[in-house]
Design goal:
mainly alpha; 6 strands
Length: 364
């Protein structure tokens, strides 16, 4: 449906007014007029028949709301690009807002009140079982829409945010890291996994590496445009350099361009591809922990901390904005917890002694 149909008893004045609308058309067989499906045209039609009883089909309202909101989303997208938001964030916000618009139909998002948003967020928590982090992402998208685009901060300003969950990251021990590397026979895949762990990279950073990002002489990797649009330098392990050289030669990698090219020209390997490889490696290594590519990054940070590396240096290597984010690794480091003895250990000899006494009494 791309036109608005208009039907009314014969009235020359009304016909003259309808003919003033650009793109009008008369349908003699069905005996009705139509104009292009545009929000402004509907407003003109309402003005023509003002004072009369007008019936507007619900599906027409829905279409016009969707059309109007799509224009808002296009404008929002442009604003986010001007503010230098990442493509990932833009895509996520647009997806969140489309879902919200679908939920509140047939109401136009411009017409919602604080209570509408409150109900939606509660729906996501209670019915959709969204985690606090996911609800916060939706909240951020809605805040951008109502504050930045609609200039209606009062619609969302007083709503509380869900409290963030304080989950500790899963971490591999050193033996588990070695076992994962040892079961991956494909040189390209093993190189990617080793780089992830050895340099503390995010999966998006690994697949996005270019040959020119490596400074072999200084044992450093230059990460460009990472999370938050930030550049940083991180470690290049001497153990990885030899593997990298063999990979370069075997896969005929040039002196520039993607280090891990994908199947399509000018595209790098997808993040999902290497995640599948890790999932299989974890299974083959007999590891039962929940392990993702990010687990290798967590393990990098935790193992550095256990080696006595200052937390502030680890923060720089990981590219964390605040040291508070990096401090989470102090809660999973065996250096902090593993050095503490359980009170049962202090009772160990006494328990053994008591057990020996019991056995002696039974024997007697």
């Amino acid at each position: 449906m791309d036109r608005i149909g208009i039907k009314f008893p014969y009235n020359k004045n009304y016909i003259d007014e309808v003919k003033k609308i650009s793109g009008y058309r008369w349908h003699p067989k069905e005996k009705y007029w139509s104009v292009p499906l545009v929000k402004d045209n509907l407003e003109q039609i309402k003005n023509v028949f003002r004072g009369n009883r007008i019936t507007i089909a619900p599906e027409l309202n829905n279409l016009l709301v969707s059309q109007s909101f799509q224009e808002d989303l296009n404008q929002l997208q442009q604003t986010m690009r001007l503010k230098n938001y990442s493509n990932k964030t833009i895509k996520s916000y647009i997806s969140c807002l489309r879902s919200f618009a679908e939920y509140i139909k047939p109401k136009n998002p411009r017409e919602v009140e604080e209570e509408d948003i409150r109900k939606y967020l509660i729906y996501l928590i209670n019915e959709e079982n969204y985690a606090a982090s996911s609800v916060n992402q939706v909240f951020n998208a809605l805040r951008f829409l109502y504050v930045e685009l609609y200039d209606k901060p009062f619609v969302i300003g007083k709503l509380p945010r869900p409290q963030k969950e304080k989950k500790l990251p899963d971490v591999l021990n050193e033996d588990e890291v070695i076992r994962i590397f040892s079961v991956v026979n494909n040189l390209k895949h093993r190189t990617m996994l080793m780089l992830t762990y050895a340099s503390g990279l995010r999966v998006s950073e690994v697949v996005g590496l270019k040959v020119e990002d490596f400074d072999i002489e200084r044992n450093m990797i230059h990460i460009h445009g990472a999370k938050g649009k930030k550049d940083r330098f991180t470690l290049l392990s001497t153990m990885v350099i030899d593997t990298l050289h063999r990979y370069w030669i075997e896969y005929n990698i040039g002196t520039s361009g993607w280090l891990f090219p994908g199947a399509k020209p000018n595209y790098h390997l997808s993040a999902r591809s290497i995640q599948h490889v890790l999932e299989k490696a974890v299974k083959d290594a007999g590891i039962t922990k929940r392990v993702s590519m990010h687990t290798l990054r967590h393990s990098f940070a935790t193992h550095l901390l256990e080696q006595g590396i200052d937390l502030r240096y680890i923060q720089e290597l990981l590219g964390h904005k605040s040291v508070k984010t990096t401090e989470v690794y102090t809660h999973v480091s065996k250096k902090r917890i593993g050095s503490i003895r359980s009170p049962l250990d202090f009772l160990g000899n006494k328990i053994i002694f008591k057990e020996n006494e019991n056995r002696k009494e039974l024997n007697d």
